[in-house]
Write a structure and sequence with these properties.
Blueprint lengths: L1 H7 L9 H5 L23 E3 L6 E3 L26 E4 L7 E4 L27 H42 L1 H59 L9 H4 L15 H5 L9 H28 L11 H13 L7 H5 L7 H39 L16 E5 L2 E5 L4 E6 L6 E9 L9 E5 L11 E8 L4 E9 L2 E8 L15
Parallel strand pairs: 10-12
Antiparallel strand pairs: 1-2, 3-4, 5-6, 6-7, 7-8, 8-9, 9-10, 11-12
Helix pairs in contact: 4-7, 4-10
Length: 503
């Protein structure tokens, strides 16, 4: 690449006459064969700097003095700091080094040609390096050939997958259009059935509430009469204190404070009693009687105001005469009875209408999801041959110490404790991030889980050629910024298309 750049920088005015082109090219130290034509002596015995800025005597080439601003007159010495020396490296690969490394007593060229005048004897190891390089090149080439063969197969799979998804889009849209009116009809039927259900339920509930309220009025009046000892239509504190079920601390006496818990006015008429006091008094009385029954069953000594044994026996007899539990009789009245058959039938009709609507609605939602998935799939960048589509919805993991890292191409990357079901998001796919001309060599994943006192987690994926798809390396070079190395046949180039290097 550097050689091509240097040649492109040569002005058109430096094109040499035909007489030089026709002559045998003479070697010049530090100049590769492909550029020798630029360094041949003209009939005038001159040399034109490669940037076209000056013309100097040909004898000034490699005279250890920098005459050209671009350093092109000193390719074989260290006189210019901006020039390059070509190592021919016969038996290996030729390469350029900066001319400031020439004769610096360090062997940079494998043939030692850069130290021709430093007094250092550099061994020629080009054959040895060349053999090793050819072995490595053959190894890499073998991997590339196997990988590229798999890539072609994966490309075929990706293309078939895309075609399969897209071919279903139009039939799915037609099915959706056909089912839409049916869904609208089912929705209307569902609304009618639910409205009928609500109306019948409300009617039943209203009738029950009216009946319950009437019964409550009767029970409240009975309890009012029971407490109103002087029958003056008013309940006062002294009358309340005679009811031991108000003895909350169970000390045998009903205090003024205990009375005020229920009686918040000086005197209560029947209306105030029913609306404010009855419900709480009912609960207090029920709890007290339950305590008495429990103590009687456990054989404990009766409280001084507890009814005598004859009364308890009479109460037990009354309980036996009523199969339903007397203690819960009023509670049962406060519980709405089951719906009658016509309401139950309406509820069943509503349930069936909802079931049919939900079933078809879910079917349409599934159709929408498939259409959306196919459209998004068709817009995804899976490479020119769609080979990367074959890895969509697949994941690859690697264990590193106590963690398992998971890489899901075009999805989300995670870190989790080994063996755990869920983990921490390291980012979702954002873009291909390879450099220009090598776009498909890197991927970036961002917007992962927020790091404590740090950024959102992210992952950059380096993609290398390999025979198998495998996550081979995981690192964290910066806090919450991860680097994955992923090997895959998809990164293997065609081994028959290569770059020829100058030897």
């Amino acid at each position: 690449m550097l050689l091509n750049l240097l040649v492109l920088l040569v002005p058109a005015s430096l094109a040499l006459p035909n007489d030089i082109v026709q002559r045998e090219l003479k070697p010049v130290k530090g100049v590769g064969h492909s550029r020798l034509y630029l360094y041949q002596e003209s009939f005038q015995g001159t040399f034109r700097c490669l940037d076209g800025s000056r013309t100097i005597l040909f004898s000034q080439l490699n005279d250890d003095y920098c005459d050209c601003p671009d350093g092109s007159d000193e390719p074989g010495t260290s006189a210019c700091g901006n020039a390059f020396f070509y190592c021919s490296n016969v038996g290996h690969t030729g390469n350029f080094i900066p001319t400031n490394r020439v004769n610096d007593k360090l062997c940079d060229c494998c043939d030692g040609s850069d130290e021709y005048n430093s007094g250092v004897d550099c061994p020629n190891i080009c054959d040895e390096l060349g053999r090793a390089a050819r072995v490595e090149k053959e190894r890499v080439s073998a991997i590339a050939r196997k990988g590229f063969a798999k890539r072609k197969e994966m490309a075929r799979q990706g293309q078939e997958l895309r075609a399969s998804k897209l071919k279903d889009v139009e039939p799915l849209r037609a099915e959706k259009a056909k089912l839409a009116p049916e869904l609208a009809a089912l929705e209307e039927g569902k609304k009618d059935a639910e409205q009928n259900e609500r109306e019948l339920q409300d009617e039943h509930r209203k009738a029950w509430e009216e009946d319950r309220d009437e019964k409550k009025k009767v029970r409240a009046a009975e309890l009012f009469e029971e407490i109103d000892l002087n029958k003056d239509g008013k309940i006062v504190s002294d009358e309340m204190r005679l009811n031991l079920y108000l003895d909350e601390n169970r000390d045998g006496l009903v205090s003024e404070d205990e009375v005020k818990t229920y009686l918040t006015v000086d005197e209560a008429d029947s209306e105030h009693f029913q609306t404010v006091m009855y419900d709480r008094l009912k609960v207090a009385k029920k709890n007290y009687e339950e305590d008495l029954r429990q103590k009687a069953k456990e054989g404990e000594e009766a409280h001084e105001n507890v009814p005598d044994d004859d009364e308890l026996l009479a109460e037990e007899d009354r309980d036996e005469d009523h199969p339903a539990d007397v203690a819960h009789h009023e509670d049962d009245e406060d519980k709405m009875p089951e719906y009658p058959p016509e309401v139950t039938a309406a509820s069943e009709d509503a349930r069936e209408a909802r079931r049919q609507f939900d079933e078809l609605n879910q079917k349409l939602a599934d159709i929408d999801a498939k259409i959306r998935e196919a459209e998004e799939f068709s817009k995804e960048d899976f490479g020119e041959d769609l080979a990367w589509a074959s890895l969509k919805d697949k994941c690859f993991d690697r264990n590193v110490q106590q963690y398992t890292y998971e890489f899901c191409p075009f999805g989300q990357n995670t870190q989790k404790d080994t063996g755990a079901y869920s983990g921490t998001s390291l980012g979702s796919f954002k873009k291909w991030s390879g450099p220009e001309g090598e776009k498909y060599t890197r991927q970036h994943y961002g917007d992962g889980q927020q790091c404590w006192n740090g950024p959102k987690r992210s992952t950059d994926i380096t993609i290398q050629c390999g025979v198998e798809n495998e996550l081979v390396e995981v690192t964290e070079p910066a806090k919450c910024e991860y680097e994955f190395t992923f090997r895959t046949p998809l990164a293997c180039p065609d081994p028959d298309v290569g770059v020829h290097e100058e030897l």
